[in-house]
Write a structure and sequence with these properties.
Layout lengths: L1 H25 L12 E7 L1 H11 L1 H5 L3 E7 L2 H9 L5 E6 H9 L7 E9 L3 E3 L14 E5 L2 H13 L4 E2 L13 E3 L5 E5 L4 H4 L5 E4 L1 H6 L4 H4 L2 E2 L10 E7 L6 H10 L2 H10 L5 E2 L4 H5 L2
Parallel strand pairs: 1-2, 1-3, 6-9, 6-10
Antiparallel strand pairs: 3-12, 4-12, 4-13, 5-10, 5-11, 7-8
């Protein structure tokens, strides 16, 4: 008899406990237990991988309810293809011109959109043999990126340095070496994978490298280049953006990444970490597209 009474008591306690749990779990305003936030996978290259890994750990990310996973890539085309096919949710790598060139390519027409701007960092001309662009000799070999956007950007930089002249109708998004109208020193141009820039410095007379890639080779564009783009926000095509597949362009969680990047505490960390070489640009996409 005592055993039956004890079992009944245990059963009654269990019923009461379940009722309390149910009340707590489903009362108005309570959050369902076991619900986890959606993880956003960001793909990036070089130092920007470390930037986003830092951002992912910040209290600012948690305050916005963002759970971020960062995946490192070794080249831009692979990263953008992964973003187009959904393997990566958001890419943190491309300049506006690079993204536009990708979207205009035959196999990727219009597959991606920019979510927002992040920064502008200058491209530089580097050399292990010469201290000034004026010292580059006749017939010197100059290495340029083999992708449309950065090849065009590099040629514009060479023109700015007074080394070549480009055709009047030069396309600053996808112009190439065939658009050179004057080459007084008869420079030879070698097209390379832009991610290999720091590794080819000693094998050519000069090489043009974007700052993200330069940083991977421990190069600071402000102190190590023999010439570099002016550090301002006037060259809109060179502004970097966060991008995603077109079908995801209205996802609010992804748009929060733009706000997160421009948080003042995060910007303070980036400026200190990269010696001011990543100049913050907080502009609407209409500023880039001209719409």
């Amino acid at each position: 008899m005592r055993k039956k009474q004890r079992n009944r008591l245990i059963a009654a306690i269990a019923v009461v406990a379940l009722a309390i749990i149910a009340f707590i779990s489903f009362r108005p305003g309570s959050k369902p237990s076991g619900k986890s936030s959606t993880t956003i996978t960001i793909g990036s290259i070089g130092p920007d991988v470390n930037v986003w890994r830092h951002i992912a750990k910040t209290k600012e990310a948690k305050q916005l309810g963002l759970k971020i996973n960062v995946k490192s890539f070794t080249d831009g085309p692979s990263l953008l293809r992964a973003t187009s096919d959904g393997s990566i949710d958001v890419s943190a790598f491309a300049s506006w011109a690079y993204l536009q060139a990708y979207n205009k390519s035959k196999d990727n027409a219009g597959t991606q959109v920019a979510l927002g701007t992040t920064y502008l960092e200058p491209m530089g001309i580097y050399s292990s043999k010469y201290k000034s662009v004026k010292d580059l000799p006749k017939g010197a070999t100059i290495a340029l990126a083999n992708n449309a956007a950065n090849e065009a950007r590099g040629l514009l930089l060479l023109q700015s340095a007074g080394l070549i002249k480009l055709k009047k109708d030069f396309n600053d998004a996808n112009g190439n070496v065939n658009d050179i109208s004057a080459n007084p020193k008869q420079f030879k141009f070698k097209l390379i994978d832009d991610t290999t820039g720091p590794r080819v410095i000693k094998s050519v007379d000069a090489v043009l490298i974007g700052n993200t890639i330069a940083l991977t080779g421990h190069l600071n564009v402000l102190t190590d280049s023999i010439y570099h783009e002016k550090i301002d926000q006037s060259t809109k095509n060179n502004i970097n953006v966060l991008a995603t597949a077109k079908k995801n362009q209205n996802k609010q969680e992804y748009k929060k990444l733009v706000k997160l990047y421009h948080n003042k505490n995060i910007q303070k960390w980036i400026n200190k970490k990269y010696s001011g070489t990543k100049v913050e640009v907080q502009k609407p996409i209409s500023y880039l597209s001209g719409k």
